[in-house]
Amino acid sequence: MAETQCTEQLQLFEVGRQQVTITFDGGQVVSDAGLLPIRELDQKLGILAEAARRLPDPRSERACTHSVEDILTQQVYQILAGYPDGNDAQLLRNDPLFKTIVGKDPRREEESLASGSTINRFLHAFTRREAEKPLEERDVIFEVRRAQVERINAINDFLIDLFVRTRKKQPAHIIIDLDPTADPTHGQQQLTMFNGFYDQHQYLPMLLFEGTTGFPLGAWLRHGTAHAGLGAVEMIERNVERVRQHWPDIMISVRGDAGVAGPEMYEYCESQGLLYAFGYGINPALKHRVSELELEDNARLLWWMSGRKAFQMFHTFDDYQARPWSRARKIVTKVEITQLGSTNTRFVVTNMTGHAADIYKDFYVQRGNVPERPIGELKNGLHMDRLSSHRFLANGHKLMTHLLAYSLFVLFREANEDTPEVKKMEVSTARTRLFKVGALVQATHRHIWFRVASHWPGARLLTRAANAVSSYVMATLARWQSENLLEAVSGSDASNRSWISFAPLPLK
Predict the structure, then answer these.
(1) 344 and 338 in contact (C-beta within 8 Å)?
(2) CATH 3.30.2170 spans which residues of the chain?
(3) pTM, two decimal places
(4) DSSP string covering 50-82
(5) Which tens digits make up the pLDDT trace of 26-55?
(6) Cβ(261)–Cβ(274) below 8 Å
(7) CATH architecture of residue range(s) 166-381
(8) Phi and psi (nearest 5°) for 493?
(9) Residue 80: how many other CB atoms lie within 10 Å
């Protein structure tokens, strides 16, 4: 990296009579040049620029060197590259690639990126001096904290708008998947608590995704011992209202496990004309019904007669009413005989019509791909679990920044619909095969060149991905223009942008 001023030589092994030596004087060489096609998509469509404009910024303009857009862009791309922490930002302040991505001239050493402490202040938007004000002045603190919550809500709303605007056409049907996930903590973060079920100190954020595409639709950070369904109805309500502002006649389905739903969720979905399927826990009344119909015995007999390793049988109870419910609802029952011969019985409460097997297998259990896969990518690929700030709302904002990073990656995959290798990539794979590529940076008055090694194995794939992004951007802008949406795109004039050019990559 540019800030590495090491003059030491590392003399290693010999090849024949030749000494192998490592030096640190190769000039401006970066290690993440493969991120540039994502920045092309982001910048041309004005995605992070639009997100930044929606964020309240209580900081004093006179005291700020780095804009909201610059800080947000820096955060998102460092997360995509695998640098999620403030300490990483400190080390990368003069990295030519990230300076280029943010829109700074990589030649000018005086134009550094935001430091880790600057990013931390932005996350908090809250100084210690304000925290120590007397009680009679705490209304100022309340306003600052309210601005922090508004910032989180603004990103949630933006993600929905981004999803809608990037669809080629209005779909007939969308699915909202919601799922809590354990986020272990290892410090003195506010509202981290020990959760006995997970046997760890943690947060328990709720995340929402669109079930067909895996696109992130929102998140809310919650304390470590929050009930699984805490705030679920409010989040679904906010999503549904926002989606219907764009698509009033859209059909919406909601699904989740047993913990996120209850009578309030069922009633809300029914009042809004939403289809739903939620897991439902076993209880004595359902046990009695299953036993009364001998479902498990019949399933075992059919399993034995079929000769299969495992066997599933489905049944529907149309008139089940739990004590807290205002009315009877439909329960889909799955009775499974496993390979070991044990019985596994599961229940789903739903208002969907059709065969029980179709509801269970073709709809409910498909949530095994969404949201479990995106959550895995967010944790393992984008380090969503690195919520290390002391303050709860700052961590809430950091969580949303990770979702913004993931939304760009999902759009990058969608742009590569005709490039199967990229379309199927998870974040960690894309980082290894595409993003992590060294390049020599050469900047002139009119160009910023990123010169990649001639024999880099990923040259062809990155070129295909970049070409796919260019086609996607052109098609999207043309569609927005035809729909009169261009006024919502980044207001910055293209003529004032820093143009980024790839050095030609050999296709051998």
Answers:
(1) yes
(2) 166-381
(3) 0.88
(4) HHHHTS---S-GGG-SS-HHHHHHHHHHHHHHT
(5) 778 899 999 999 999 999 999 999 999 988
(6) no
(7) 2-Layer Sandwich (3.30)
(8) -70, 135
(9) 28
